[in-house]
Write a structure and sequence with these properties.
The complex is a heterodimer of chains A (308) and B (419).
Chain A: H1 3-36, H2 43-63, H3 69-96, H4 105-125, E1 131-132, E2 140-143, E3 151-154, H5 155-177, H6 179-189, H7 191-196, H8 201-227, E4 229-230, H9 234-249, H10 254-274, H11 280-294
Antiparallel strand pairs in A: 1-4, 2-3
Helix pairs in contact in A: 1-5, 1-6, 1-8, 1-9, 1-10, 2-3, 2-4, 2-8, 2-9, 3-8, 5-6, 5-8, 6-8, 9-10, 9-11, 10-11
Chain B: H1 2-23, E1 26-31, E2 34-39, H2 42-60, H3 62-71, H4 84-104, H5 111-136, H6 144-162, H7 166-188, H8 193-213, H9 215-218, E3 224-225, E4 235-236, E5 247-248, H10 249-253, H11 260-286, H12 288-298, H13 300-305, H14 310-336, E6 338-339, H15 346-359, H16 364-380, H17 388-402
Parallel strand pairs in B: 4-5
Antiparallel strand pairs in B: 1-2, 3-6
Helix pairs in contact in B: 1-2, 5-11, 5-14, 5-15, 5-16, 6-7, 6-8, 6-14, 7-14, 11-12, 11-14, 12-14, 15-16, 15-17
Classes of the chains: A mainly alpha (308), B mainly alpha (419).
Chain lengths: 308, 419
């Protein structure tokens, strides 16, 4: 194989890795949008907080002398998911629930305020500097001719792929099989009618925030380990990317968010392969604008009908 | 009932504990290459305990607290103004007094406060511009700072490469920002409110990234420095003239040189620009186009069924708002003498949005007051400067929750029938 094609394969692997974490964050956007029709602008900050919690737990356990990596990761996962879900629930309770039923712009502005608040809360309580964690999962496989170009696929990337697939399967089962999942789907179909049928819609809305935050925390854990660096400002750009992924796949549709995340990740990796990497953000925002212009309902979304 | 409340309060304080114990109670710290954690100081834990206790008590006595706060009248600065005919008589005099005061004031105070006032005026201009887009037309624009950047870079580049003066560049900057607004707005304004917010946010980021990376023209992250200052009909406010043929201000009038002339001159330009913008927007609001903006904000479908062209109306709001930002940007570049992409980050857009929201969407007086408060308060409370953005965020949430119409709610220009 030529050098270029090997390079493209390498970028495809990297892109799918990043893309699957985008998909995890995007599900939080898409579930909330599907039910109450608002953009949870503070969702990216939940991802950032999830990353921080992961770092704190891992650093704490390593400091206490734990050596078994799987146990450390599982404990970190549990604590990060619980804390991030609590944040998600509280944000909904404090900043969005009192505003339900008002003009569309009002919850959005409240969400922007919440996002600024959380970002600066972490700046003040931790610090605005980068915090680095030495790589925990090292090693991997390499393919290709070492004299031409070596494609590497690390264990960390494998972990991200496997974890994402497992989480997605569990989520799909939860949404399609469980009683709560059915209530979720009913809410996104018709919130008022679901309420009339005796389902506590407020509880279901809170649940979607909790599930979204838990997935963002998992993404925070995986990306935190993958990059090894975290700072209070990562949530903003990651949130924007994940939102792009959600819109790309069709906002409101969970399979759409998964697909959108993967497409966006691969597009970005391919862009940075052939152009200066600074322009990858330009390309993904440009992509967002193009989708919204030509197919606002996304790849798998249903076109929205405006009702009087 | 009381036991239920008690459980509620316990639950809320438990939530507060989970929220704070990890993020505030433990601090990440890097020691050479290893990452370690350290517990927060006893003082910080004291604060956490205090916060949890507050949450517990406020949940336990929620009804009583609501009852007390229900009696406190909501602040409505709009009601302070005299009403009816008395107001019509007083208004021109008040306006005249205000304008004279603004023109005379800088000669009596220190240089620093004049400089701060100039900065406030820039934010007033930006706030008024965004107010057209968000407040009147109801289009949430999160990338407003992009137009500000376009205005600033237009002046900086034109003065550096083409040697054009500030006064020639001012309309060009406004026009170019308006053109950018038009080009962005034309495809995007068909989108619904929240999509528009994200697209404008993305656009703001794109502009910033381009400015940062197009090093050959914009100087990249190091920005452009040495931007020419405005002149008064060719009179320069420097000790020695930079350009051949110009005369310094102090030599022309035969007075000794003082650097505060320049500061005062910049302030006066800003005052004139703000008065111009306020007047223009005030007129526009009373014109059919201004009415159409508000009508569109209230009910888009009704507007369309009445035969209003929604794309043109939205586009006009977007373009005029952008041109105001371009105006402010050109002036900002002239005042600073140095610009870099650092000045045009998302937070700047958020601050301008916070000004509009705090003042009251659509209300000009409200936006002006809010801009004054938002720029002067951080200066007065310098020891709290690190909490500034935290409080901005909190303020936006609280305002939306308790007073979404702002401190000075908008009043439509209207006539009352007397019966």
């Amino acid at each position: 194989m030529t050098e270029t094609s090997l390079y493209v394969i390498q970028q495809l692997i990297n892109g799918l890795t990043i893309g699957s974490t985008y998909a995890l964050i995007a599900i939080g956007y898409t579930m909330v949008y599907g039910i109450i029709g608002m953009i949870n602008f503070a969702h990216g900050e939940i991802y950032m907080i999830g990353s921080y919690i992961t770092f704190i737990v891992i650093a704490g356990l390593l400091g206490m002398g734990f050596v078994s990596l799987p146990i450390i990761l599982i404990i970190a996962l549990i604590i990060a998911v619980i804390t991030a879900s609590t944040y998600g629930w509280t944000i909904e309770r404090v900043a969005y629930r009192p505003l339900r039923g008002s003009n569309r712009l009002i919850p959005l502005i409240s969400a922007i305020g919440m996002s600024i608040f959380l970002q600066n809360y972490v700046v003040l309580s931790q610090s605005s500097r980068d915090v680095a964690l030495p790589p925990q999962i090292t090693g991997g496989w390499t393919f290709g001719d070492p004299s031409v170009f070596e494609v590497s696929f690390s264990y960390m990337q494998l972990l991200i792929w496997v974890a994402t697939v497992v989480v997605m399967v569990l989520l799909t089962l939860f949404i399609s099989r469980s009683r709560m999942g059915r209530a979720c789907r009913a809410c996104s179909e018709d919130l008022g009618m679901t309420n009339l049928l005796g389902i506590e819609t407020n509880r279901i809305i809170a649940l979607t925030f909790i599930v979204g935050a838990a997935l963002a925390a998992i993404a925070g854990l995986l990306l935190g380990l993958y990059y090894g660096v975290v700072n209070p400002f990562i949530g903003f750009i990651a949130g924007l990317k994940a939102f792009t992924a959600a819109v790309l796949g069709g906002i409101g549709s969970i399979p759409g968010a998964m697909l959108g995340g993967l497409i966006l990740g691969v597009t970005e990796a391919m862009t940075s392969a052939f152009f200066p990497s600074e322009y990858k953000d330009v390309v993904s925002f440009g992509l967002l604008v193009l989708i919204l212009l030509f197919r606002p309902s996304g790849i798998l979304g249903k076109p929205e009908v405006e009702k009087v | 009932m009381t036991t239920k409340k008690f459980y509620n309060a316990i639950f809320a304080s438990g939530i507060a504990f989970v929220l704070t114990c990890m993020m505030v109670g433990i601090k990440l710290d890097t020691e050479s290459t290893t990452l370690r954690i350290e517990g927060a100081s006893a003082e910080q834990w004291g604060w956490i305990g205090l916060g949890i206790a507050l949450v517990f008590l406020s949940q336990l006595f929620a009804d009583q607290i609501d009852a007390v706060f229900g009696k406190v009248p909501k602040p409505n600065l709009g009601k302070l103004m005299p009403a009816g005919e008395k107001r019509d008589v007083l208004k021109p005099w008040l306006m005249a007094a205000l304008i004279v005061g603004m023109l005379v004031w800088p000669f009596m105070v220190s240089r620093g406060s004049v400089d701060l006032a100039t900065l406030t005026l820039i934010y007033i201009m930006l706030g008024l511009g965004l107010n057209i887009v968000v407040g009147l037309a109801g289009l949430l624009d999160l990338g407003f700072v992009a137009f500000y950047a376009v205005g600033a870079y237009t002046y900086a580049l034109l003065s550096q490469y083409a040697g054009l003066s500030f006064w020639a560049c001012l309309p060009i900057s406004a026009g170019l920002a308006a053109l950018f607004g038009f080009i962005l707005g034309f495809p995007v304004l068909r989108l619904r409110g929240d999509y528009l917010a994200i697209v404008t946010l993305g656009f703001g980021e794109i502009i910033r990234i381009l400015l940062n990376n197009w090093t050959a023209v914009t100087g990249g992250p190091s920005g452009i420095s040495g931007i020419a200052k405005p002149t008064l009909f060719g009179l320069e406010f420097t000790r020695r003239v930079k350009e051949e043929g110009n005369v310094p201000f102090h030599e022309f009038f035969g007075i000794s040189y003082s650097s505060s002339y320049k500061v005062i001159f910049l302030y006066l330009i800003a005052v004139i620009l703000v008065i111009f913008v306020v007047y223009l927007i005030n007129r526009l609001m009373r014109m059919p186009i201004g009415r159409a903006w508000e009508a569109l904000r209230e009910d888009e479908i009704a507007c369309r069924s009445l035969g209003l062209n929604r794309t043109m109306i939205k586009l006009s709001a977007f373009t005029i708002g952008a041109s105001t930002a371009g105006f402010a940007g050109a002036f900002f570049a002239a005042r600073q003498g140095f610009i870099s992409p650092e000045s045009f980050i998302f937070i700047e857009s958020a601050i301008i949005l916070a000004i509009v929201v705090l003042g009251g969407m659509g209300s000009q007086i409200g936006v002006i007051l809010a801009a004054i408060v938002m720029t002067i308060l951080p200066e007065l409370a310098r020891e709290f400067s690190e909490y500034r953005m935290l409080l901005f965020g909190l303020l936006m949430v609280l305002m939306m929750r308790w007073r979404p119409e702002g401190l000075v709610p908008m009043k439509r220009p209207h006539l009352e029938l007397k019966t």
